[in-house]
Amino acid sequence: MPAHAASNAPGAVVPCVLCGSLNLRVVGHLPAEKVHELWLKKYDIAVRQYFPNAQVTNYACASCGLEFSHPASPGDDRLYEQLQRFPWYYEEDKWEFRASLAQLGKPGPALEVGCGTGNFLRRLRSAGFDDLVGVDSNRRALETLRASGIKGCERLAQLGPKRFDHIFAFQVLEHVPNPRELLESLLPHLSEHGRIYIAVPNQDSFIGDDLNQELNQPPHHCSRFRARTFRDMSRFLPLACEQISCEPLADHHVGWYISTRMQPLSRRSLAARLAWRTVVPLVERALKLEPVRRYIKGHTVLAVMRHASAAPREQSAPQRSAAL
Fold it and tell me: Beta 297-307 vs 190-201: how paired, if at all?
């Protein structure tokens, strides 16, 4: 078993699934039955079959900053096919789409891993990219991609020796039980001076404080990333971080942000809770202003990675990134 793979054996040592470090701490436990009941009530989706144990333990790695669940308990294709029926699941437009397009140079061969129905690949085609491939295990999503005239396959192995100047993995790494294995599988397909654009939920933002968010836990998310995880990646993978950008708080996430900030108040006095509720409308009104939201870290962090041995290209003007 590789050093970076966690074992399900009782009492086994559980190294970090990304960097292999044993410098871990337990940050919580997740009862499988409770998760199953919540998913049935909220999404009408049964998930108990994804949990091999009665509970999942969440760890935080002091070496790379990754948080991960053990056993990983990931969902399968059937789970994502059921989630696909919700219109919000495969969004037509995402912040990372626009942020990545703003950083791209000239068109070249492009691959998107976890492409879903192909919303971003179609944006690339409109921008002048014509050598496009999408990879996704969701067969129903691939049918939509192929119907739009873009090549799609279920596994990276089907690509053969083909290399790409641009590889995109948006909201993918957090879903797989072994993110290191996925990153290593991308390297043979990255051209010498190519770039990998990785977008993941930002555990440094408010979502990292939302302990009740079931979509940031198994069977949906197996791990949770911070910006430092990508900055430190060259210590354990031949990938160097070229740029980090943080999404500002999105308008449609204002309600989520406020409810998350209110969670700690449940442990305070009634007077403190009532006092906070009186100012919530004012806070919500302020956060509806884009100049205010741009200074608050939102849902996603975007990392641009290159071969560690490749000379860094000249940086474009940095984007304004949220700081709070």
Answer: antiparallel
Q: 3-state SS of 9-35?
A: CCCCCCCCCCCCCCCEEEEEEEEHHHH
CA–CA gap between residue 170 and residue 289 (Å, rounded): 27
Contact 123, 168 (CB under 8 A): no
State both tokens at 246: 């943080």
Q: Identify whether the C-beta of residue 139 lies closer than 8 Å to the C-beta of residue 194.
A: no
Scanning the structure block, which residue is given the tokens 């799609």?
A: 152
Contacts of 324 (CB under 8 A, 6+ apart): 295, 296, 297
Q: Is 306 helix (H, G, I), strand (E, B) or coil?
A: strand
Instruction: Please state the pTM of the whole predicted model.
Output: 0.88
Tens-digit pLDDT profile for residues 154-208: 999 999 999 999 999 999 999 999 999 999 999 999 999 999 999 999 999 999 9
Phi-psi region of 118 (alpha: psi -120 to 50; beta: other; left: phi over 0): left
Structure tokens belonging to residue 57: 């333990």
Residue 226: exposed, middle, or buried by beta-carbon count in 10 A (0-12, 13-18, 19+)? buried
Query: Count of H helices and E strands in the chain?
Result: 10, 11
Return the domain boundaries, the chain.
Answer: 82-252+291-307, 253-290
Distance, in Å, from the CA atom of 233 to the CA atom of 240, rounded to the nearest integer, reads: 7
Q: For 82-252+291-307, which CATH class?
A: alpha beta
Residue 243 to residues 93, 302, 313, 315, 316: CA-CA distances in angstroms? 22, 8, 11, 8, 10
Query: How would you classify the pairing of strands 151-153 and 164-170?
Result: unpaired
